[in-house]
């Protein structure tokens, strides 16, 4: 918002209206010991040119994928974003922070959300998608809460290796709601142990969660995990990378009851961590338990197509005891970006992008393991990410590679784990991967 200067007479008028003789009267309830007793240490005022120069100088200190070759992944990926996406979503009728709470929101906004929902359903092979969540982590946590609501059971079992941050959000959500802690299955060879999972899942379990591909990039045995969940009467929740669905089976094809995901790779920039997009899909029989809101298409009295908020299940709209969540917004602009991205690429384009990521990741992995001292930590199949055992600590590699203009990957020791997690998208060229491998050989 613009800064509007208040004159002395403006301030006097406001104080009189508030029934205060001075500004100090307004803050009388704030204890003296925590009040600021000195002037703010502000820099001297600058003209517009000088301010712009200073801000550009500060911005130039950031390291971004605009100037670095990125092998970073772990949930946020350096995907190519077609220029048409920005051209479309930056139109004034779309480029707004307005959240569609009300049923009378514009038909254009509602139609855009409806198109997003339809495309996501096709991608994930599910019946219903909501009008999006905050991000992939909160979508997963809301899925667990929904499973408890549907089944009336308390326990949540995680079948394989979730992203640690997603695990943290999941635990925070469940703990704050007074539910039992999450039960983590053992991980062997980079994937969840099927034998161990069978011993954990019984009639008290509300849902079994799996990330596909998992945090290590490995592919879990989703068919077996889903069968175990169904045998125990638990819901099957899949957190799926949307790009992987260009080459892997959709969650709906192997029996997911709820499928969620992080929508950032579908046309949203990494943006130093957000805003992102939470994908949330369900089987039709659970539609009235879905969190957030749902846009539907109908006919008006003249027979014309129309769009409307069909379900609004937050506590501001319905009785609190019937609310499915307290999510109060959605990521409408990011959802629009995803819809435009999916529309531009289509089925063939998604298969092409996923296929290129798959092939390039395996090419790079094969190059690196030829270098003495390097090996794949896990032998399980992977999509576009893999974990390396390295001859020196991964932090050393990450730091030195920055000097070469490369984001080398994620040092898993920051999560109390081991290895270097490397991700490869369709943007990485053979020359970039060969140079990366050559530089790794110097350690």
From TrEMBL:
**CDD domains recorded:** GDC-P (cd00613)
Q: Any keyword Oxidoreductase?
A: yes
What keywords were assigned to this record? Oxidoreductase
- Annotated Glycine cleavage system P-protein N-terminal domain ranges read 3-435
Similarity comment: Belongs to the GcvP family. N-terminal subunit subfamily.
Q: What does this protein do?
A: The glycine cleavage system catalyzes the degradation of glycine. The P protein binds the alpha-amino group of glycine through its pyridoxal phosphate cofactor; CO(2) is released and the remaining methylamine moiety is then transferred to the lipoamide cofactor of the H protein.
Q: How does it assemble?
A: The glycine cleavage system is composed of four proteins: P, T, L and H. In this organism, the P 'protein' is a heterodimer of two subunits.
Tell me what this protein is called: Probable glycine dehydrogenase (decarboxylating) subunit 1
**Species this protein is from:** Chlorobium phaeovibrioides
